[in-house]
């Protein structure tokens, strides 16, 4: 399976991946998934927005269906299925493992359970959520937010990609029939388990191949619009300029310093400049801040200090600043009892937090009992071509996920 996925959306120059949601490479990955599901006799369901689930319902299994109502805790509700899986899209020039490892491993875990002769008492599903990275429409975990109702149809209808293409048009161009609103795919899901490559070196430091998630740090994406006055780069005296690039540059340094002092995370990784000319003072600089902290109070304090320093600089430069939160996720604390239970199932696997956002966090916030497993990443690098997990650890992940699914079903 991994060999089949490897060439899809891969750059011949950098070796990185770009599987943009609703575009060719990501759709090829989905076609691969549908073929894998069909070869296993899994029942495929789709919600019209790009989210897909393939269910293993052994012959003769009688499901005691209890439909989900939003906000209820269905941790022990009899008859509800267990869903696993992840996503197939990627960031620009990203790694091979972020997302697809969880999908391929889920399919292999179903194979492993069948090899063991295991028969689940409730259905087991393998899910694929669309646009998890937010690389095209700016909203992380877009598919799972739509599926849980965390993103309203009105909000989704306003989304545009950097080329101005509306979300609904992109969906339609991919052959989908958008049905914005809570997804029927999650209606009968009692537990969701997501396996993911670790995005860091915690497991490397612990000399452990597999870990269990305890929490996800709160995080968000914030747009900073620095407005100034366009002018000639050669004829305008330095003291006469209202240059938003200076305001932006100071803000980048302030964000870096505040994050380092607090032991948190702050990154300006995306930038747009208008008019973007070599010989022109810009009129507008738009930059996106990714900020992540151990708790909401620390995140709010760090953002406030970054904005305060940016505002002071704007006053000196004669520019203007507008800050807009675009995608903000609160802290997620996975069910501690379940995490410890799965740790014991896996031979005392370490229970660790993650600073990266995941679909599991969105489903957890929606009231679905949720857990995550991590596979060791020896480089510690993610969202880049060097992202890696040894095949031996990936296969350990297959066995771990199979054991967890058996424990839960």
UniProtKB/TrEMBL annotation:
Zn(2+) 1 binds at residues 87, 98, 196. It comes from the Bacteria. Binds 2 Zn(2+) ions per subunit. Signal peptide: none annotated. Gene3D superfamilies: 3.30.70.360, Zn peptidases. One of its GO terms (molecular function) is hydrolase activity, acting on carbon-nitrogen (but not peptide) bonds, in linear amidines. Its cofactor is Zn(2+). Coiled coil: none annotated. Transmembrane segments: none annotated. SUPFAM superfamilies: Bacterial exopeptidase dimerisation domain, Zn-dependent exopeptidases. Zn(2+) 2 binds at residues 98, 133, 383. The keyword Metal-binding applies. InterPro entries: Amidase_Cbmase, Bact_exopeptidase_dim_dom, Peptidase_M20. Allantoate binds at residues 221, 279, 292. The keyword Zinc applies. Keywords: Hydrolase, Metal-binding, Zinc. Belongs to the peptidase M20 family. This is Allantoate amidohydrolase.
């Amino acid at each position: 399976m991994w060999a089949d996925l490897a060439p899809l959306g891969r750059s011949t120059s950098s070796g990185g991946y770009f599987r943009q949601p609703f575009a060719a490479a990501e759709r090829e990955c989905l076609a691969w998934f549908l073929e894998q599901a069909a070869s296993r006799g899994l029942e495929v369901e789709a919600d019209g927005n790009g989210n897909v689930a393939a269910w293993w319902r052994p012959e003769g299994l009688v499901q005691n269906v209890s439909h989900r109502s939003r906000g209820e805790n269905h941790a022990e509700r009899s008859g509800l299925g267990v869903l696993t899986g992840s996503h197939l899209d990627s960031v620009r020039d990203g790694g091979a493992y972020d997302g697809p490892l969880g999908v391929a491993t889920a399919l292999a875990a179903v194979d492993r359970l069948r090899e063991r002769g295991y028969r689940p008492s409730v259905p087991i599903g393998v899910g694929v959520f669309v646009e998890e990275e937010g690389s095209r429409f700016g909203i992380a975990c877009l598919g799972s937010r739509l599926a849980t109702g965390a993103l309203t149809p009105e909000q989704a209808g306003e989304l545009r990609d950097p080329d101005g293409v509306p979300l609904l048009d992109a969906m339609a161009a991919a052959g989908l029939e958008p049905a914005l609103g809570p997804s029927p795919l999650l209606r009968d899901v009692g537990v969701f388990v997501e396996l993911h490559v670790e995005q860091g070196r915690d497991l490397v430091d612990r000399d452990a191949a597999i870990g269990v998630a305890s929490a996800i740090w709160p995080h968000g994406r914030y747009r900073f619009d620095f407005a100034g006055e366009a002018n000639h780069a050669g004829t305008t005296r330095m003291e006469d300029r209202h240059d938003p690039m200076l305001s932006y540059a100071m803000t980048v340094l302030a964000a870096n310093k505040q994050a380092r002092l607090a032991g948190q995370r702050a990154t300006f990784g995306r930038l747009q400049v208008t008019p973007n000319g070599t010989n022109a003072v810009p009129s507008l600089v738009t930059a996106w801040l990714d900020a992540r902290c151990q708790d909401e109070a620390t995140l709010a304090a760090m953002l406030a200090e970054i904005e305060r320093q940016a505002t002071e600089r704007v006053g000196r430069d004669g520019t203007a600043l507008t800050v807009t939160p675009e995608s903000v996720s609160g802290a997620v604390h996975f069910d501690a009892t379940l995490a410890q239970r799965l740790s014991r199932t896996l031979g005392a696997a370490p229970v660790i937090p993650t600073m990266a956002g995941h679909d599991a966090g969105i489903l957890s916030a929606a009231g679905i009992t949720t857990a995550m497993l991590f596979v060791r990443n020896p480089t510690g690098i993610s969202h880049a071509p060097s992202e890696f997990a040894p095949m031996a650890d990936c296969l350990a992940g297959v066995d771990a996920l199979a054991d967890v699914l058996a424990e839960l079903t």
